[in-house]
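Inverse folding, one chain.
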C-alpha cells in the first residue's frame, strides 16, 4: 500500500513555475486522489498487511489497469520494518511500482539502504518488496566502517541483507580515469551478507591488473558489527623455528565478550595454540586473559654438542611442554570497592623473549594492556614474572587494601635467592578528626605474610599511629605538627631448616621507632593577562615549605631483611622545598575555553643534624650534612609536547650524581619523537630513543634504539620504512638485539587488515 507526497524540496526553476492552476495541476491532483483511493481500498481489503509505503517525487502518475504508479525526478521510496526485515529506503531517477505482486522497478542512480549500515548502489533495480529479493545491474555495495566496496556487473539480492555476485570485485581503492585500483580481489562468484561475511570462490589478489595470489576459496569480513570469523594469518621464518604459520579465529561470544583462537605450526618446533578471551562491561568490569601452549620437540644439545646452548649462558633448553599464561582484570563492586588482577606466569625463561614480536606475543600484549588497563607486563628479558591480586576499599576517613603477590622465578632472581611470595599483604590507612580537640588521629598499619619456596615463612605486623595538629601561625601561613610511635613485630618460621634461610636470630624480634614531623608553608601567586595567543590569563604559584623530620628507629640489627622497609634510616633533618606551578587559561582555535598546567619547577634539599654533630671525622670521612639538591622540571607547552628533567647535584664538589631526562612530541603530521635518558653514578647510564620522520605524505621512517652506556652495550635497535598510500600500507623493519637479528615485512589492506606478514629471524 502506498502513500504519495509531492516533493516539497524541489528547487525553483522557470520550467516548473506555476502562476495559476492549469491542466498539469489537475492531472497531478487527480493522480494523488486516485492513488489515495487505491491505497485506502487496499488497506481495507488487505487487513493485517504492513504499514504503508510512501513515495516522494517531482512527478507522480497513477494507472488503473494494471494498478501501477510511476514516479520521476528525485524519487524516494520509504517503508517501515516488518517481522525480521528492517526499514527500507530506495532512491532513483525513475521508479515504477506494481501493486499486483508488490514489485518495484527503479532506474538511474539507484541507491538502496536497509537497516544495516551498508549502502547499495546500482544502475537498475527489480525488487519484490515482500521478500526483499530481486536483481541489480552494475552494483556496488559500500561498507562505510571498513571502506570496502563490493562491485559486480550482475547481482542477485537473495534476502534482506544478502547478495550474490557474478564476476565480483572487492577493493577500498579509488579508480581514477579508468585505471585499475592499486589492489583488488577478483572472484568468479561471491556471496555477501551485510554485517556478516563475503564468501569468494576462485579469488585472486591483483596489484593493479596483475594477479599475484590465487585461492579457490576465501572469506572477507563484510561486518558493520562484531562477528565471528577468521583473521589474516601470520607467516614467519627463522633458523630456530623454521617456517611458521599462525591462523587466528575470532569468536564473538556476546556483545561484551569475545574469544580469539590462535592455531599455529612451526616446522622445527611443533604445534602452538593460544587462546585469548576479553570481556568488557563499561559499568563495572573489564578483563583479558590469554594462554599459550607450544609442544616444542627441540632442545639444546648437551655439553658436548656442537652448537652449545641457545644464549651461551650455561642453561640448556630441554623443556618440551612450554606455556605462558597472562592477563589483567579490573572489577568495581561499587565506588568504594575495587578488585584488580595481574596474571603472568611462564614455563621457562626464554619463551616470552623468543616470541615477543609474534602476533599474540609480548609486544602486542603489552601495547593492548597499556591501552586497556593503563599498566603493562614485566619486561620480557627479565628472568621472573609477577602476578598480583588486589582488593581496595575506601570510606570517608579510611582506606583498606589486600594483596597477593606471586613471583614466578623462571630465571635467576635479582636478589640472588628464592623470591618471597606475599600471601597476603593487608593495609589500612585512616585519618580521623577528633571532635573534642583540634587534632586528628592518623593510623597506618600493615600485615605481611612472606613464604619462600623452601618453606621458610616470615610474618610482619607494622603499626604506626600518629597525632596531627595544625599550627595556628596566622592567615598567611599553614602548618602541621605530627608525632607518633611506630611498632614493628616479626615472627620467623624456619620450617626445621638448620640453615634457616640465612636467619639465626630470635623467632619474634620487634622494633619501636619514634617519629616527629613539623612543616610550615605559604602560597604566593600572581596572575597576568597577556592578551595575545588567545590567552586570557597566565598564573604563577609559589609554595615555599620549611620542615623538620625526626626518626629514631633504635637497634635494627636483630631484624630480618625482607623487602627494603626493615631498615629505617635514622633522621634528624631540616628540609626546605620551593615549588613553582605555572597555569594558563584561554581559548583554542574552536573558541573552546581551557585551563592547563603548563609547567612546574621544584627544588628541595635537607640538612642532617646527626651528620653535623658527628665527632668521628677525618680526612677520609668529612662531615657532609647537606644533602644533594634535587631539581624537578616538567613542561607541557603544547598538548602533544611533554618534557621532564630530574637531577640531583652534590653540594660538596662532586657535581651531578643522577638525572633523568624524558620527553615526547608528536606533530599534527607524521613526525614524532620520544626519548628517555637515565643516569646514576656508577649504577646506571642508559638511553632509549624513538624517532619517526615523515619524508612525504605517504612515506615515513622510524628509528628506535636502546643503549646501556655504562657497559657500552646496545640492547636493541630497529629501523623501519613505512609506506601508507590511500588504501594500503607497507612496513619494513630490520631489528637486532643481543641475541637475534630480524627482518619483518607487513602488508595491510584498508578495510581488510593485515594481508601478509613475513617474519625472518636468525639472519
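Residues assigned per position:
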Amino acid at each position: 500500500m502506498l502513500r504519495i507526497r509531492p516533493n516539497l524540496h524541489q528547487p525553483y526553476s522557470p520550467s516548473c513555475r506555476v502562476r495559476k492552476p492549469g491542466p498539469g495541476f489537475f492531472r497531478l491532483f487527480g493522480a494523488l486522489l486516485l492513488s489515495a483511493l487505491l491505497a485506502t481500498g487496499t488497506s481495507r481489503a488487505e487487513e493485517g498487511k504492513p504499514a504503508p509505503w510512501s513515495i516522494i517525487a517531482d512527478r507522480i502518475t497513477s494507472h488503473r489497469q494494471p494498478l501501477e504508479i510511476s514516479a520521476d525526478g528525485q524519487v524516494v521510496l520509504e517503508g517501515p520494518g516488518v517481522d525480521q526485515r528492517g526499514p527500507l529506503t530506495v532512491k532513483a531517477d525513475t521508479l515504477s511500482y506494481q501493486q499486483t505482486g508488490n514489485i518495484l522497478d527503479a532506474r538511474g542512480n539507484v541507491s538502496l539502504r536497509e537497516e544495516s549500515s551498508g549502502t547499495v548502489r546500482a544502475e537498475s533495480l527489480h525488487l519484490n518488496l515482500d521478500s526483499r529479493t530481486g536483481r541489480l545491474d552494475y552494483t556496488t555495495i559500500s561498507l562505510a566502517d571498513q571502506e570496502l566496496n563490493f562491485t559486480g556487473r550482475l547481482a542477485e539480492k537473495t534476502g534482506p541483507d544478502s547478495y550474490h555476485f557474478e564476476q565480483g570485485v572487492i577493493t577500498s581503492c579509488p579508480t581514477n580515469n579508468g585505471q585499475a585500483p592499486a589492489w583488488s580481489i577478483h572472484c568468479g562468484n561471491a556471496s555477501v551478507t551485510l554485517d556478516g561475511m563475503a564468501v569468494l570462490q576462485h579469488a585472486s589478489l591483483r596489484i593493479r591488473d596483475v594477479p599475484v595470489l590465487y585461492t579457490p576459496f576465501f572469506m572477507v569480513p563484510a561486518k558493520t558489527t562484531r562477528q565471528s570469523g577468521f583473521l589474516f594469518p601470520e607467516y614467519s621464518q627463522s633458523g630456530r623455528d623454521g617456517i611458521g604459520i599462525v591462523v587466528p579465529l575470532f569468536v564473538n561470544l556476546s556483545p561484551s565478550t569475545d574469544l580469539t583462537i590462535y592455531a599455529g605450526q612451526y616446522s622445527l618446533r611443533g604445534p602452538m595454540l593460544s587462546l585469548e578471551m576479553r570481556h568488557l562491561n563499561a559499568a563495572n568490569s573489564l578483563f583479558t586473559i590469554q594462554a599459550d601452549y607450544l609442544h616444542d620437540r627441540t632442545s639444546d644439545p648437551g655439553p658436548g654438542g656442537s652448537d652449545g646452548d641457545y644464549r651461551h649462558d650455561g642453561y640448556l633448553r630441554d623443556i618440551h611442554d612450554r606455556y605462558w599464561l597472562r592477563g589483567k582484570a579490573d572489577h568495581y563492586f561499587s565506588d568504594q570497592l575495587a578488585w584488580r588482577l595481574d596474571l603472568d606466569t611462564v614455563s621457562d625463561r626464554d619463551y616470552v623473549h623468543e616470541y615477543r614480536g609474534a602476533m599474540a606475543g609480548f609486544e602486542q600484549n603489552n601495547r593492548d594492556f597499556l591501552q586497556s588497563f593503563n599498566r603493562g607486563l614485566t619486561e620480557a628479558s627479565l628472568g621472573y614474572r609477577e602476578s598480583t591480586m588486589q582488593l581496595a576499599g575506601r570510606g570517608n576517613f579510611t582506606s583498606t587494601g589486600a594483596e597477593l603477590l606471586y613471583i614466578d622465578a623462571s630465571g635467576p632472581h635479582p636478589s640472588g635467592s628464592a623470591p618471597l611470595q606475599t600471601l597476603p599483604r593487608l593495609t589500612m590507612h585512616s585519618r580521623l578528626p577528633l571532635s573534642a580537640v583540634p587534632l586528628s588521629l592518623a593510623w597506618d598499619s600493615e600485615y605481611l605474610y612472606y613464604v619462600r619456596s623452601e618453606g621458610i615463612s616470615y610474618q610482619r605486623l607494622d603499626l604506626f599511629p600518629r597525632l596531627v595538629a595544625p599550627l595556628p601561625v596566622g592567615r598567611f601561613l599553614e602548618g602541621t605538627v605530627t608525632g607518633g610511635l611506630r611498632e614493628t613485630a616479626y615472627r620467623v618460621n624456619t620450617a626445621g631448616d638448620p640453615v634457616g634461610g640465612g636467619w639465626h636470630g630470635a623467632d619474634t624480634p620487634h622494633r619501636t621507632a619514634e617519629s616527629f614531623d613539623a612543616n610550615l608553608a605559604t602560597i604566593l601567586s600572581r596572575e597576568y593577562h597577556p592578551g595575545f595567543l588567545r590567552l586570557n590569563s597566565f598564573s604563577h604559584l609559589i609554595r615555599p615549605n620549611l620542615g623538620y623530620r625526626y626518626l629514631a628507629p633504635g637497634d635494627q640489627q636483630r631484624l630480618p631483611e625482607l623487602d627494603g622497609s626493615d631498615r629505617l634510616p635514622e633522621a634528624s633533618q631540616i628540609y626546605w622545598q620551593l615549588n613553582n606551578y605555572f597555569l594558563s587559561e584561554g581559548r583554542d582555535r574552536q573558541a573552546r575555553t581551557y585551563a592547563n598546567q603548563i609547567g612546574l619547577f621544584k627544588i628541595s634539599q635537607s640538612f642532617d643534624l646527626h651528620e653535623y654533630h658527628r665527632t668521628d671525622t677525618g680526612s677520609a670521612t668529612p662531615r657532609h650534612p647537606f644533602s644533594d639538591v634535587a631539581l624537578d622540571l616538567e613542561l607541557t607547552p603544547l598538548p602533544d609536547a611533554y618534557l621532564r628533567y630530574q637531577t640531583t647535584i652534590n653540594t660538596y664538589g662532586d657535581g651531578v650524581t643522577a638525572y633523568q631526562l624524558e620527553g615526547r612530541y608528536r606533530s599534527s603530521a607524521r613526525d614524532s619523537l620520544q626519548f628517555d635518558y637515565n643516569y646514576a653514578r656508577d649504577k646506571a647510564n642508559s638511553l632509549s630513543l624513538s624517532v619517526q620522520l615523515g619524508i612525504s605524505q605517504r612515506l615515513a621512517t622510524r628509528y628506535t634504539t636502546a643503549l646501556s652506556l655504562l657497559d657500552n652495550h646496545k640492547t636493541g635497535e630497529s629501523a623501519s620504512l613505512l609506506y601508507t598510500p590511500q588504501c594500503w600500507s607497507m612496513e619494513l623493519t630490520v631489528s637486532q638485539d643481543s641475541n637475534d637479528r630480524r627482518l619483518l615485512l607487513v602488508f595491510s589492506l584498508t578495510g581488510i587488515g593485515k594481508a601478509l606478514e613475513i617474519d625472518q629471524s636468525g639472519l
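Residues 667-763 form one domain. Residues 23-45 form the longest helix (23 residues).
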